[in-house]
Amino acid sequence: MTQAAPAARRPRLFVLVPVLDEAPNIPRLLANLSSLAARLHEEMECRAVFVDDGSTDGTTERIREEARSLGVEVLRHEVNQGPGRAFATGFRHLATQLEDADWVATMEGDNTSRVETLLQMLVRRQEGFEVVLASPYMYGGGLTNTSLVRVLLSHGANSLIKELLGIHGILTMSSFFRLYAAPVLRRLQARYGAGILETPGFECMVELLAKLIGEGATISEVAMPLDGSQRLGQSKMKVTRTIRGYLRLFWVGRHWRLGGGGRPRASSS
Predict the structure, then answer these.
(1) For the domain that residue 88 is a member of, what is the CATH number?
(2) In the chain, where does DSSP find H-type helix?
(3) Is residue 62 situated within a structural domain?
(4) What are the DSSP calls for 186-247, one per residue?
(5) From CA 63, how far away is CA 213, in angstroms rounded?
């Protein structure tokens, strides 16, 4: 009597979330991630990886208290190092775990990244895209309950960076909210190291996008309504520091910026 072949393992969705003093936002965030895991149960296994970037308000303890049945790991920096360093720690941690069928979503820790948007992003993976960006600038998206300074900084940074790096066909450059196929991350890790990222601040997302384009990744976008009222507490983005980070990006990135690297294969449909 022949034995039945073992059932294929479900693909895994790792949700990577950097957090800094987000204790008030953790209960709702984990409830949303638990809802996501339940909705994807038959299709994917959902795991959350938090990188606590030096919180002093008990964020790590709150995550462990609220995790319940959701698979959660918490990595911790004893002192704040910036979101770029937090993402690098997360990518490095996942480097030995990722298999070809897996996906990694990166999200904000303040409840402004909506699960409903992530479900739409996951549909795009079935269309052959390796990277899916959540964009507030697409029709159907938008920025509400967000300070004028943040809106102007976002628009200005997007426009400047597109011109200086020669990136076209992509609407949003700096959002944390993205979805990546494991193979494209592994290609970046083979080229740039397990952490992928070099810049420490919010400019890290632009760095990562430029590197993805240089690798020829296929990129799509979906509309994201971003509502700042979902956040409890203040944004962790410091405007002056972020501007300095974007300016620094052009210096430290001279060896990986596009140059002759070609154009992105992108779709905003």
Answers:
(1) 3.90.550.10
(2) 26-39, 59-66, 83-94, 115-125, 148-165, 182-192, 204-214, 239-252
(3) yes
(4) HHHHHHH-TT-----STTHHHHHHHHHHHTT-EEEEEE-EEEGGG--S-----HHHHHHHHH
(5) 34
Residues 78 and 56: their CA atoms lie apart, in Å, by: 9
**Tokens 């298999």 label which residue?**
99
Pair of tokens at residue 167: 């990136």
Structure tokens at 53: 């970037």
**DSSP 8-state symbol, 169:** S
For residue 239, tell me if it sits in a domain.
yes
Mean pLDDT score of the chain, rounded to an integer? 83
Domain count of the fold of the chain = 1
Question: Mean pLDDT across the stretch 62-89?
Answer: 95
CA 128, 134, 138, 140 torsion: positive or negative?
Answer: positive
Please give the Cα distance from 4 to 19 (Å, whole number). Answer: 44
User: Token pair 């004893």 is at which residue?
Assistant: 78
Quote the pTM value.
Answer: 0.83
Q: Please state, in angstroms and rounded to a whole number, the distance separating the CA atoms of residues 161 and 250.
A: 9
Nearest to 98 by CA among 161, 157, 37, 180: 180
Residue 228 has pLDDT above 90, yes or no: no
Q: How do residues 4-36 score in pLDDT, each as one tens digit?
A: 555 567 899 999 999 999 999 999 999 999 999
Does a structural domain hold residue 110? yes
Residue whose C-alpha is closest to residue 268's, from 140, 81, 118: 140
Q: Which domain holds residue 208?
A: 12-253
pLDDT band for 61, please (50, 70, 90 cuts). Answer: very high
Asked if residue 212 belongs to a domain, the reply is yes
